[in-house]
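Reproducibility note. Readers wishing to regenerate the assembly model reported in the main text can use the exact inputs given here. Chain order matters: entities are listed in the order in which they were concatenated for prediction.
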Amino acid sequence: MLEDLFKVVKARFNDETAGKSEDSGENVSIPKDLLFKCPRCGTVAYMEDFEKNRRVCAACNYHARLKWQDRLNMTADADSFTEFDAGMIGKNPINFPDYEKKIREMQQKCETKEAVVTGECHIHGYRCCIGIMDSNFMMASMGSVVGEKITRLFEYATANKLPVILFTASGGARMQEGIVSLMQMAKTSGAIARHSQAGQLYITVLTDPTTGGVNASFASLGDIIIAEPKVLVGFAGRRVIQDTIKQQLPDDFQTAEFMLENGFADMIVERTMMRRTLARIMKLHNYEKEKPTAQAQK
Amino acid sequence: MNKLTATERLALIRQKNRPTVSDYIPVIFNNFLELHGDRHFGDDHAIIGGIATLNSIPVTILAQVKGRNIEENKRTNFSMPHPEGYRKALRLAKEAEKFHRPVICLVDTPGAFCGIEAEKRGQGEAIARNLMEFMTLRTPVVSVVLGEGGSGGALALAVCDELAMLENALYSVISPRGFASILWKDPGREKEACELMKITAEDLLGFGVCDKIISEAAGGAQNDMKLTASNIGEYLSEAISRISKTDIDIMLENRYNKFRKIGMFEEQP
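Running the prediction on these inputs yields the following structure tokens for the assembly.
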């Protein structure tokens, strides 16, 4: 098992195709539902194969974005999930034009009321609190609801002595909510501080993309920080940096591998290994298995 | 005096003659002893830190430094800190905690610096760490926004028991230009964004983000720096002495709740 864990920490700079951004070879139009074109290496695959491969690019191992439902199914033991605060919806603190309308559209598209789904579940029999951000919902930006749900999740976990696992994905603070969104960074960090002081474990799983205000708050505060291969992780947007410093950025800039190399992630873990890695970490932190392992899902 | 619009205030606080911490610190405090470095990487001149006395009481000062001219701005990176700046601030805040000394943060930044080196050294982690650690810092923390309070780069020095803003200061999730650029793909709509975003001291009082507005001299702080400094000093003395009287655990509960309650949502069945 140990070897398995290390095998996934891939050699990071020998992959010549890595890091090509979305704008390379964009002139070929691709039927969206039939084919998947990898934003990292440009390889085109049949959507069916790509989905079967858990939405991982077979050519470069880029771990593409997941809907929250798929992430949950891949992660939690079957039928073990109880959702928290499912009915929470945001208001419009600065009266940003058409914000409510946008939210309603997203709610229909993503089958959730906001950009994070929280609750509790078992993973290989270990009971834990879980939060899954869905980048399909307004790039999983953090407004009042995301901040409140994550804060409540940590408060619940503190009260019930449970570990928390967050799958982070976000473009950052939700601009449409103005200063209120910025304050969610402090609010969530405060709840994590209390959970931490109570001696409980927090595991962050960085998924594509984890940037901006989420990177600068709860995504960087895990006791253990895991990243999926090839995902984008960073504070400032690539374009903003390019405009500021007027030079080309290295291909691996702000990837999971870049974070590992610079000391800001503990490990890179592939999707196929995620469940058992999370369970193993919980075990090593002396949490006890409550239920027999559900072998139905791997 | 008529209140200025957000756009007028933005122009005012970006004026070259707007007083900076370099002007205020010698007037408000005595015996400032600057302390350098984050003990890991280096010393960031965008944030200065040190110990001084305020009415004979020792306090730790953490301040973002706008330059008053090109030379100063080169040195202070236009007040855009790197990760080591935030780590220096945290180191000094921890030192203050150890000696039960109040911490005063003076916020004045367009934002944390965006660059390759800043990313390599974990700009996001540095800010996040400050948010978490300041929330449980067992000594009073008071922050004052002097001019620009730009995004996470400002928030990293603004997790506090009480936040005050100078009358014309602004505090926002992103610069108005960035807001227009991201949401409307048109940075030219900066002024419109500025008015829409609700970023003035009065707006933030309404959101519960700001607790106190400090008056500037008529027409702006630049017209009478000493008067403005004296208003800041008066507020800080009062706030520090009041907060210091609170039991520390209650103070931390209040600090947590100050941020805990911010958010606008409703719950449906």
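We highlight two features of this model. Chain B has one domain: 6-256. The longest helix of chain B spans residues 225-244.
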